[in-house]
Here is the input.
Amino acid sequence: MESFRTRNPQAALISLEASAASARGGFACLFSNSDEYERALIDERRAQGRYAQPKRRWPLLMLIGVMLMIAGTVLLFA
Here is the structure.
């Protein structure tokens, strides 16, 4: 079996540099800072509809219920 030291050192260096350049290319970031990343993330989530206001009727129903209890209490003690 051929060991690493007996190979051509120039070829090994070139191979290593090519591997390093390839690895650096895989870690490239599309955003220059975190603000750009967060803005893109928020825009993507808005496009998906994650920040849409849920349409719930509970607050209105609770308000009507509390108003009816107050009116009932007033009529009971009046």
Q: What stands out?
A: The longest helix spans residues 58-77. Helices lie at 9-26, 34-48, 58-77.
